[in-house]
Design goal:
Arc Repressor Mutant, subunit A; D-Maltodextrin-Binding Protein, domain 2; 5-stranded mixed β-sheet; rod-shaped; 311 residues; 3 domains
Amino acid sequence: MAYAKVFPGSAGPLDLRHLRHFVVLAETLHFHRAAERLHLAQPSLSRSIRTLEQDLGTLLFLRNQREVRLTSAGAALLPEARLLLAQAARTQRLMQDIGRGDAGLLRIGFISSTAITLLPFLLRGFRAAHPRVRLELQEMSSAAQTRALLAGQMDVALIRDMEAGPDIRQHSLLRERLLLLVPTGHALVEQAPVSFSRLVDADIVLLRREVAPGSYDRIWANCLAHGLQPRILMELADSNAVLSMVAAGLAVSFLFSSFAQAARPGVTFLPLQDEMADSEVSLAWQEQVAQQSPALRSFIRLAQSAFPLLD
């Protein structure tokens, strides 16, 4: 019985094509039938198997004119080869899915007010179209989100009242008005819409300026315009804390109209009589990142379609 020689050492890296040919031959143990399954000429299959044996430095098959059998090395290789080919197929599908925006990771930053209706709306639409994309969400101030975008730590951001700079693209989503928050049953409820001049004796809690600089500056500007030196009880970093302070009857405050859609017992939202510029919420991203991320491009298209450019 004439067997192929043993190959000392490895001649090169493994080739997945040779592994596929090996698996089919190992399953059929017949060169002609294996070549037919692979749509190869039989000499080409023989060369492929010899190359794999050279690469591995060992015989994989014992063959003569009557039979083809796996060697012990071939038998050991067969389950490993199947695993490698399955993993390669999964990797190929994953890369194709990522290329279509159907898989991968999307890192989204947001401000607290958008978590009430805007962000859930966008996430529902995106998840319906791309259920396999993994989402990472982080609540941050608008300024912190801008820094994270520039540092490559975030893919897309929902920011308020910011010109993020020349390296950041923005799309305006919506405009909101500031509303006055008072404890339920407060005397100002009967005076709505409320003028700033009515707040002369009121204790006020505000979001810190670094959290919401646009609204903070608007409130101060309107107070000063009405000759009012506001009695700031405290400045807080979280909108929930603001709501809790108002609900406890300790102070009045200001939040954007989106918060009125998340009712809080003990808090009443009132319109303001005095005109203040609207607050603008925008989607922000780096164009060079979007060019490399189909998932991000899809998220941007969804937002732009749902919220056409504001006038």
